[in-house]
Amino acid sequence: QAYLSYSNIAALAHMASKSGWDIIKTLDNVKIWTHKEGAVLSFKVEMQVKVPSHVAFSLLSDFRLRQRWDRHFLTCEVLRAVSEEEKIYHVTAAPTTGHKPRDFVILVSQRQPCRPQEPYTVAMRSVNLRAVPPSLEFCRSEILCAGFQIHSNGSSSCTVCYFNQVTSGVMPYLAANLTGSSKSIEDTALECIKFLE
């Protein structure tokens, strides 16, 4: 359990520290980047938010609030509170055309910065839980590595970066966006900013 939590945080930090991100879209308060390494595609959404970093961290680390700004989330329930900083959630996501709704069992690990220049971190990855086996109603999908890093820009604003290593379970929600025929990433980012502010 301790190893899973550590590797969850470490994997997100590793993704965030990679060089070679390509910017694909710039809006007023949102930038979208992609990173390709072999067959691995990751994306980053950078949002400028006018709230203190600790407020953004508090709101983003409670996944039950995510339905308020992310229309892909249908339901989200806490399956197990492992500790103050780790919770396991069961999330259901809206169906994409021609597919069953998807569901995810995810470990969410949150960390406050140890030093002033470090970000707040909310990392997530899929885990297996015997109590919640895959059901016929949903297509059980996987998140390898995703999450938020929140950097303070002073007492009243912060930069929120969302990262996701794209898997086959996540790809249907992004494919149209990455080819330019949909704006769901931008729309979700703008909803997130509105929710935080």
TrEMBL record:
Domain named START: residues: 16-166
Cellular component terms (Gene Ontology): cytoplasm
GO molecular function: lipid binding
PROSITE patterns cross-referenced by the UniProt entry: START
Record's protein name: ACO12 thioesterase
Superkingdom per UniProt: Eukaryota
PANTHER family linked to this entry: PHOSPHATIDYLCHOLINE TRANSFER PROTEIN, START DOMAIN-CONTAINING PROTEIN
A Pfam entry, by short name: START
